[in-house]
Amino acid sequence: VIQTWSYDQIFKDVSDSRQILGDECITFCYPFGHVSAVGEKAIKDAGFKMAFTTNIGRVKVGANKYELPRLRTSTGTTLAVFKELIK
Asked: What contacts 1, CB < 8 A, 6 or more positions away?
């Protein structure tokens, strides 16, 4: 789990993944939403521009772009419900 890895382990893993996915891959989602200061630094240093947790909420001006919340949807979420979520 990323929370228990060292900086070097995290950096290598995400850098390798980013090389496979390409430079246009700039967004990271923390596995299980868990984030640590070490993980956050490694993600940033690997070239990601933002990262999401599993914390529910909206992104606000001034938010830490490496600890962004998100709105949850599921396969049963209708377009009407989604529109209400993002209002």
From this structure: 31, 32, 34
